[in-house]
Here is the input.
Amino acid sequence: MIQASHISHFYGSEQVLFDLSFEIRSGEFLFLSGESGSGKSTLLSILSTLLKQSNGELFIDGTLIDKISNIDYFRQSKIGFVFQFHYLINYLSVYENIALAAMDDKKQNINKILEELGILELASRYPNEISGGQRQRVAVARALVNEPKIIFADEPTGSLDSKNSTIVYGLLQEASHKGTTVVVASHDMQIQDYATQIIRLKDGQIL
Amino acid sequence: MAIFLISSVSQGVIGMFSKMIKTDGDIIITQKGISDTFFSNVDIALMDKIDKIEHISSSYAMIVGASPIGHIPIAGIYGTTANHFSHYKLSSGKYPNEGEVILGENLAKQFMTKSINIGNKYFEISGTYSSDIGFEEGGVVMNIGDAGKLFNRSASFILVSSDSPNKIDEIVKKIPDLDSEIEVKTTQNFVKEYNQFKIIENSSFVISTLAFAMGLMGIASVMSMIVNSRKEEFGIMRALGKSRFFIIKNLFFETLIMSLSAYLFALILSLAILAMLPHIEMLQGYVNGTLSLSTALYVLASTLIMALLGSLVPAWIASKTDPILLINQGCA
Here is the structure.
């Protein structure tokens, strides 16, 4: 599903990733682990097409990312995101936040997903009117709405208690069981219980 | 709003004075080589000779001056020949005889006495008058003889009306033959060439241009700050697969709505202030505003252009940045 070939990245003159090559198969639940500053968030951003690597090639679903003419459509149709701080838009309701991400032919999925995640009753509420755990579940719903082939999650439980963390991991695992590739970057070693593949990073290199 | 008010007030001042002159005659006679009617001195006896010229229907003389009146530091004084009194619509009393004055309604509100002191001389108040022109509403009208003694001159200018509009140019050429010390112009040309108007126009142009430039820079900066504070949101939208075009299109309409709302608010507030100005006693009706359609449209166009530039340029730059960098910049 994802093939990274000789990926390196610089912030200015500082190199943060060093010649990384690996492959993630379809349906895997990949745990990208490492200390702060190891480069896991940068690698996740590159893998999810949110950041262009300085060197190397990235293939997703057999397509070389640098050759894609409409990266926005590619991202919307194939990739879902869950961020640490949920990044919901505060002036949009829960429903509208999910609708913003949904492609036209996937909008009918919104209520179904909200119901599956147990947050249908929050549909008309605004992000600042719900709890942190509920917001993160909304973020997961937003990531799932387009039935993406890959979900990327950067510290998805970083701001959650253990009960809500277990719920979010469960949701991601369920997506993985349905064939979605899940890539999670986190400090939280609890995720090892769910992962089918682990990549450990230190100082921008795979251990 | 500053743009509206500065432009409107300067246009209003010019408009009042030019209306005062234009509506009262076709030709104006002033002293030769004098740039301001305040300093002009024309022999009033000239009126008899002028009235004998063919196609002249009427003429009158005026002295325009300014002086402290009672406790008021300065007010306009209009000394005129009796045949011009009817220009001032009496609200009460009668037109003035020698030693008497009539007060404009705005000025009259500030005097409850029967007489007033002008230039260390007391005049009986014989009545009050109203006028559409703010300058006149805040002033005093008296006989030209009394004004002549106050300001030590015969007449500031003579205004002449003709019964044949197509003969006006011909009359303008004839009148200078009567006196070598006078200058004769059509009132339209006089208004166009009057130095005081040019000074007001030029200074108001400079002030309003500066206010305008500052206002426009302010609009562009505010819009730019708003866009920059929303980088995280744009980054999230890009991460969710929204195109650059989608983000810029939304921002375009948001800016349009915000700018139009701000413009309408400023326009309505300015119109309200301009409507109140003539009724503020302290200003004696001297400060008046005229907001022309061309000024309103010019401000509208400039506001929209600057607001759109101020928002779309940073949005375009942001749209070319990697989404994760936008999100991180937004968090910073």
In short: Chain A has six helices and ten strands. The radius of gyration of chain A is 17 Å. The beta strands of chain A are 2-11, 14-24, 29-34, 55-60, 63-64, 79-82, 150-154, 181-186, 197-202, 205-206.
